[in-house]
Amino acid sequence: MNPLVSILIPTHNRPEYFELALASALMQTYPNIEIVVGDNSTNNLTEQIVAKHRSHPRGSVIRYYHHSGNIGPIANQQQLLNLANGEYINYLNDDDLFHPRKIEIMMRHILSHTNVVLVTSQRRVIDSKGKRIFVPPIGTFKVLRPVDTVIDGGVLTRDMLQDRTNYIGEPTTALFRRRDLTEPFGVLAGKQVLFAVDMASWFSLMTRGHAIYLVQPLSYLRFHPEQLSQSKYAQKIAEMDYKVFERFAKLRGFA
Q1: Smallest Cα–Cα separation from 197: which of 231, 162, 172, 223?
Q2: pLDDT tens digits along 42-52
Q3: Is the pLDDT of residue 231 over 60?
Q4: In the chain, what percentage of residues exceed pLDDT 90?
Q5: CA atoms of 19 and 27, how far apart (whole Å)
Q6: Number of structural domains, the chain?
Q7: Does residue 116 contact residue 210 with C-beta atoms inside 8 Å?
Q8: Could you tell me the residue range of the domain that residue 9 belongs to?
Q9: Which residues on neighbouring strands pair with residue 11, listed in sequence order?
Q10: Angle at the Cα of 166 (from 161 to 169), degrees rounded to 5?
Q11: Which residue among 26, 62, 191, 248 is least crowded, i.e. fewest CB within 10 A of its CB?
C-alpha cells in the first residue's frame, strides 16, 4: 500500500492564491494523500473555498482548521505538523503550486533509498499572475546537479552553511519523512529560527540522512510583494537566524 502523504497548507488572508494552491494539491496523481489546512485568516473566505472544493472527487481528504485568532506563520506550520497523520510530509505555501505529479515522483524516489530522508527538485518562479519569471529575483535557483542525484546530507549542509543559501528550497519544494524531523518545524538544536524556518528543519533532517535532488521542476514558487520575505525587516531577522546556524555549525563540526 502507498504510504500516506500529508500536504500541509498554512494560509492567511490569501483566498485567491489559496484556491489555486488547494486545486494543485487535489490534482496530485499520488493516490494516498491528506490535505490539512491551517487558516489564520481574519475572515471566512478561505473556509468558503474549502467548502466549495469538498465536492471535488477527492474533497474528502481535506481537513480544515480555522484558528480563533492569528497564531502566526511559525505556530501555524508547527501545529499543522502535529495534526498530520502522514508518514511523509510536504508543505504547500498558500501562494505556491505543485506540479500534478510532484508527490508521485518524489515518493517513488524516497521509497527506493533507505538512507534518504528528503527529496527536493528544481522549481519554477512565477509572478502574481502565474506567469513564469525567467530571471528569478533571488539567487537560489541554480541547478545543483545535471542529473537526479543522491546528495550526502553532510555535504549539502556544509554547502548551505558556507554559502548562506537554501539550496533545498522553500517548504513547498521538499518532501520529507516525518519521523526523521525530531524537533518542531523551524527549531534547530533547541533554538527557534524566526525567518529561515525551512532551512532550520532541512539542516536538522540532513543530520539523519541524505537528500535526493531531482532536475525536473516539480513546484512553482510565486514571487510577489505581499510575501513575508519581501518585508523590510526580513534581512534583519535573517541575520539573527544565521547566529543560530553558526552555533549549529560549530556543534556539528562544520565551522
Answers
A1: 172
A2: 999 999 999 99
A3: no
A4: 76
A5: 12
A6: 1
A7: yes
A8: 5-252
A9: 39
A10: 150
A11: 191
pTM tops 0.90: yes
Q: What is the pLDDT of residues 102-145, one digit of tens each?
A: 999 999 999 999 999 999 999 999 988 889 887 655 545 667 88
Q: At what angle do helices 197-206 and 153-163 cross, to 10 degrees?
A: 150
- CA 161 to CA 66: how far, in whole Å? 36
pLDDT tens for each residue of 75-92: 999 999 999 999 999 999
Residues present in the chain in total: 255
CATH no. for residue 128?
3.90.550.10
Amino acid (one-letter) located at 28 = Q
